[in-house]
């Protein structure tokens, strides 16, 4: 069964409100008439309301860059799923390497966030990936297996479109270095087989696995031609309307 490609833009800690509105407007325009792929953008929390106004009624999905597991409570600095939904968010990035590496988020915490998001109807984009040291030590697949299994621990998936995974080798994020299409496909195929071991085959076959890590207009076509790569999680290139439009219109 064919999986619908997803192109996701992670704006990270960038854009003023005016810049966010301008960029979101360009993305909406770039998506008009597309029916064979989906597009998601994740602005910073401060710009969610502004971007929500722009994408409302369009084909563009709105996502947050993180989400708490709780409905409400004493969680200073966190954002509840319901708060995001009220703004129009249907998705949230969880476990991004910057959350893991810089802010020390553990697999256990990431699993808690993911479970909470799914419970309240937010579609999580679970990120995972190895560092350069781990790859050079031959630990890539062991790291991916740990992060995926722990991230999805206790998670039941009845509808495959309610979960998205994203393989992001840490050494390729923001460095300009991209995993070759062969390296990326190898990792994606490994994770696909993990999903087959964890879930019913018909479900595992339909869960989308994105590639992230210095994706740009020059390498997106080759990456997305790989059989187990179902889209891209784009960082820096999603901040420029022209480059992100080219990525959205990747050639299959």
Look at the structure and name the CATH superfamily: Aldolase class I
Strand order of the largest sheet: 1-2-3-4-5-6-7-8
| Helix content class | 25-40%
Per the CATH scheme, the topology name is TIM Barrel
Oligomer state of the chains in this structure: single chain
What is this entry, summarized?
The chain has helices at 17-31, 48-55, 81-87, 97-101, 107-119, 132-136, 140-151, 181-198, 201-204, 220-224, 241-248, and strands at 6-10, 38-42, 60-64, 91-94, 123-128, 164-167, 208-212, 231-234.
What does this structure look like?
The protein has 252 residues and is of the alpha/beta class. The chain has a single domain, classed as Aldolase class I (TIM Barrel, Alpha-Beta Barrel). 40% of the residues lie in helices and 15% in strands. The protein is built from 11 helices and 8 strands. The protein has helices at residues 17-31, 48-55, 81-87, 97-101, 107-119, 132-136, 140-151, 181-198, 201-204, 220-224, 241-248; strands at 6-10, 38-42, 60-64, 91-94, 123-128, 164-167, 208-212, 231-234. Strands 1-2-3-4-5-6-7-8 form an 8-stranded parallel barrel, surrounded by 6 helices. Helix 1 links the parallel strand 1 and strand 2 (38-42). The longest helix is centred in the C-terminal third of the chain and has 18 residues, at 181-198. It is globular and about 45 Å long. The two termini are 16 Å apart. The mean pLDDT is 96.
């Amino acid at each position: 069964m064919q999986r619908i490609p997803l192109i996701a833009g992670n704006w990270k800690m960038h854009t003023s409100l005016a810049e966010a509105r301008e960029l979101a407007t360009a993305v909406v325009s770039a998506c008009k008439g597309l029916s064979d792929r989906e597009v998601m953008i994740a602005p910073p929390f401060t710009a969610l309301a502004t971007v929500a106004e722009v994408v409302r009624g369009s084909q563009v999905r709105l996502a947050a860059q993180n989400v708490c597991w709780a409905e409400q409570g004493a969680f200073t600095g966190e954002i509840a799923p319901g708060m995001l939904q009220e703004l129009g968010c249907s998705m949230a990035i969880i476990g991004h390497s910057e959350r893991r590496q810089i802010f020390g988020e553990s697999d256990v915490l990431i699993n808690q966030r993911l479970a909470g998001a799914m419970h309240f109807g937010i579609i999580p984009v679970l990120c995972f990936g190895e560092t350069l040291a781990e790859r050079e030590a031959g630990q890539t697949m062991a790291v991916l297996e740990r992060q995926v299994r722990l991230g999805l621990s206790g998670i039941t998936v009845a509808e495959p479109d309610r979960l998205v995974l994203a393989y992001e080798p840490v050494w390729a994020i923001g460095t300009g270095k991209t995993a070759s299409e062969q390296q990326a496909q190898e990792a994606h195929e490994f994770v696909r087989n993990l999903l087959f071991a964890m879930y019913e085959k018909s479900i595992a076959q339909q869960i989308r696995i994105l590639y992230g890590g210095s994706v740009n207009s020059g390498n997106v076509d080759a990456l997305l031609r790989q059989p187990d790569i179902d889209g891209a999680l784009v960082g820096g290139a999603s901040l420029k309307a022209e480059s992100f439009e080219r990525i959205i219109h990747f050639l299959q």
